[in-house]
Design goal:
By secondary structure, this protein is an alpha+beta fold. About 40% of the residues lie in helices and about 15% in strands. The radius of gyration is 23 Å and the shape is globular.
């Protein structure tokens, strides 16, 4: 997303007509800078208040979506990501507390937090390696990090709606899963767990519709008319289960097919991954040497040039 769209989303916070048309919401960035003013960590969330939804507000006070979080690789392992998320959680509670007719204390506000996470089994190795190179962190460590924060994977076939209208080339996002955790208010007595085992269909419908409407479609098209929303809304019934753990190891079998393709295609360099989490999980140390046929092919292709030199 370009800067123009990001700023346009923040401007919607001040749109009184939009705020009155559905769930009150607040998009925010929490940004940390070093002494020279350079951004070293940031967290982007959008929060929705359930104040106008009588049924959902009996369960919780709202939801918040973790859209982006990053830390400069030079400053990782210092707790900057954790700090920005704690601050974002505090600001989300303050916002929701202020939406109730009788202003409530932020510490009594109960939220759930949902985020999108890459689904390795739905990604190609090319996509995984490209994402790993861009984020400077591999898929499996990222999943482990979110699990340590209390997130678990929702048992729901998720499709992100297009970021642009379909007639302009927008396509749905298919390579993601949804993860969730509870954010119980410190002084609340509702008993919302931090590690959730299930989530109500009302909470899921509320959150996904508002996230798609405010942040994904962002006014460019109608969520109600999108076929992928209709399919997902139809499945939001009863209670949605949440997995007890996030799955790290299930990629192995499909990954081997990739590795063999890359080895035979001479595009895969095991040394680039042998010391990383991704390398350990896909068994880089057990990757067999290049086939005799490939070694012979290399020798045949390089011999004339070597002789000429």
């Amino acid at each position: 997303e370009d800067m123009e769209k990001l700023l346009s989303l923040l401007e919607k916070n001040r749109d009184a007509e939009l705020q009155a048309s559905g769930a009150p919401f607040c998009e925010q960035w929490i940004i940390m800078q070093d002494g020279a003013g350079e951004v070293v960590s940031a967290c982007n969330t959008i929060t929705f208040s359930a104040v106008r939804d009588a049924r959902l507000s009996s369960q919780m006070d709202g939801t918040t979506h973790l859209t982006y979080i990053f830390a400069d690789p030079r400053f990782r392992s210092l707790g900057l990501g954790d700090f920005t998320m704690r601050r974002a959680r505090h600001e989300a509670r303050k916002f929701v507390a202020g939406t109730f007719p009788k202003r409530r204390e932020p510490d009594g506000i109960d939220l759930i937090q949902i985020a999108e996470q890459n689904a390795p089994l739905q990604m190609s190795i090319q996509e995984m390696l490209l994402d790993t190179a861009g984020a400077k962190i591999d898929q499996f460590y990222r999943r482990k990090y979110f699990e340590m924060l209390g997130f678990r994977e929702i048992c729901f076939k998720y499709t992100q709606l297009p970021l642009e209208p379909r007639h302009m080339g927008g396509e749905p996002g298919l390579g993601m899963k949804l993860i969730i955790r509870g954010l119980p208010g410190p002084s609340s007595l509702r008993g919302i767990p931090e590690v959730m085992r299930e989530v109500s269909s009302e909470a899921m419908r509320f959150h996904l519709y508002n996230f798609f409407d405010r942040s994904v479609a962002a006014g460019l098209y109608s969520v109600d008319e999108d076929p992928d929303w209709a399919k997902q809304a139809e499945k939001l019934k009863g209670t949605i289960k949440v997995k007890p753990r996030m799955d790290f190891m299930s990629l192995n079998k499909s990954t081997w097919r990739f590795v063999e393709k890359y080895i035979e295609g001479e595009k895969f360099n095991a040394r680039d991954f042998e010391n990383g989490q991704l390398g350990r999980l896909i068994g880089i140390r057990n990757v067999p040497p290049l086939s005799q046929r490939l070694r012979q092919s290399r020798a045949e292709n390089t011999a004339p040039q070597d002789a000429a030199e």
